[in-house]
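Table S5 (text form). Sequence records supplied for joint modeling of the two-component complex.
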Amino acid sequence: MTLPTIAEASRRLADKTISPVELTRGCLEKIETLNPEFGAFITVTAERALAEARAAETRILREGPRTPLDGIPIAHKDLLETAGIATTAHSRILKDNIPSRDATVVKRLADAGTVMLGKLATLEFALAGPSFDLPWPPARNPWNSAYFTGGSSSGTGAAVALGMILGGTGTDTGGSIRGPSALCGISGIKPTFGRCSRTGVIPLAHSLDHIGPMAWTAEDCAMLLQEMAGFDPSDRLSAIVAVPNFSEGIGKSLRGLRVGVVSHFHERDNPVSQETAAAISDSLRILRSGGAVIEDVSLSSLSDYSAANRIIMNAEALAYHEQTIKTSFLEYGERMRNRMVLASFLSSSDYIQAQRRREELRAEFAAVMENFDVLVTAAVADEAPLIDQVPFWDGLEKPSFALPWNLTGYPAMAVCMGFGPKGLPLSVQIGGRPFDEVTVFKVAAALEASTNWRQMRPNV
Amino acid sequence: MPAPTPEINLADFEVLLKQNGLPQDRIRVEQLYEGYLKLRAMVCTLRRPTDLKTGLAVDFKPTLLT
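The corresponding C-alpha cell record, covering 526 residues in total, follows.
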C-alpha cells in the first residue's frame, strides 16, 4: 500500500475508498518489518489498534467520520501518559510505569477518532542521548540507520518518515520536535507556549516544555494540532485563547507577507553547511516569488539564547529528578546521569540570571516580531551525524537554532527543504508570531507545494 | 561561545563531585569536567549587570504573548 498523508487518508476514509482497518494493518506491517532496525517504537499496541480501527470503520460506515482524523493511525512519544499502557520516558526508572490516565492531548486525539498504535522512542527523559545503556535502543535515522534521528522526539521522527504511522506527538523544550523533524525529513511544529496542554506529560523543564504534532506535511500537522490544541484548566499555564482553523491559510497567496531572515544565526553564530545555506536561499526565493517581502533582521547572538535555555533547562530538569537521583542514580543511563551531575553545579543565582536574560531576549524578540509575520532560519546546521558520533555533551556544544522559540514561547516549525550529499534531509525553520500558527502553516505548506521533496520517501 | 574560564581545576572539581553526594564509581571525572567547563562558559555569558527593572520570566503567562 502506498502510504497516504493524513489529508489524503482523511479524504479516502470519508469517501470509503480505504478503511481504517486496512490503513492500520498497513502501518502495523511496516512496524513489524522495520522496527527491529530503526527502533522507533518502544511499545506496539497492535490488538488495541485493530480494535480501535474496527470501531472507527463501523462509525464511519454508519455516521461518517467524527472528525477529519477519524481512523487515522498515530502514536505518542513515550513521555505522554497513556492509561493502562506503559509510559517509560525511555528510562529504566519508569520501565514499569503504567499510568491510570491519558494525557490531555492523548485523550483529545483519541476523542477525535485516531487509532493509537503505541509508544515511541525518545531520548531518556527527553534530555540525554542517544544512549545504548537503556532497556530499549535509540531510534535510528529513517534514511540511513547508521545515522542519528536527532532528539528527543526521535521515535516520532523515524516512525512518520518510515510510514509506520501517519502522524504523532512530540515534545519540545530545546528543539525536540524540530530537530528530529529536520533530521528525519518530515514536518513538525512547536506551537505557541500554552497552545497545547502539558497535563499528563512527563516534564523536562516546566517553563520551556511544549507539546506539538509531527507528520509528513505541514497540512497534516495543522490537522493534528486542530484536535490537540485548546485551553485545559488542569494545566495552569494553558492559554485561554481561541483555536482557529489551522489549515485556513494553506494554499492562500503569500503576497505582502513580511519575512525576516536572521542571517547572522546561520552565517556567523552557528555556520551551516553549504547545502543548508542553499536550502535557506531556495526557501527565500520561493517566498519572494509568491509575493512575500524579505528583509534581513538582527537579534542577539544565538549563543545568548542557547546559554539561557540550557541553564534553565538543566536546572528545572534537576529539580524534577532530584529525589529520584538520590535513591536510584545508577538506574539512569550514563548520559542522563552526567547531565544531572552537571546541573547540580548550577546555583540559584545562575538560574535567576538565566531567567532575567530570558526576559530581555523575549522583549527583544517581541519588538522585532512587530515588523514581521514570520522569521526564516535554519532548523539544523547540516545533515544528521552518525549515531555513534554524536558528541557526548551534545546540546552544550554549538548553539541550537531552535532555542529562541523555546525561550520566547513563539511558534516555530521545521520543513524539509532538500537532501545533502549523504542523502539525508535538510531543513529550514519558520518562526511565527504568538498564537499565529495559521501563518506558519501557510508558509510551510507553500514551501512544500513548491518543491518535490514530499514525493521522496526513505528507500526501505 | 566565549572560551571556557576554568574557575576550579580538575582536582578541585573532583572534590566538589564527592561533596554533592552522588555515587562516583561509574562516573568519568574528566569527562564531567569537560562538560562542566562548557556549562560554566554559558553561565559566564549571563554574568553581567542586568537592568534592575528587568523582571523574572520564571512563569510565562501565555495570554500576555498576544
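Note: The first helix of chain A runs from residue 6 to 14.
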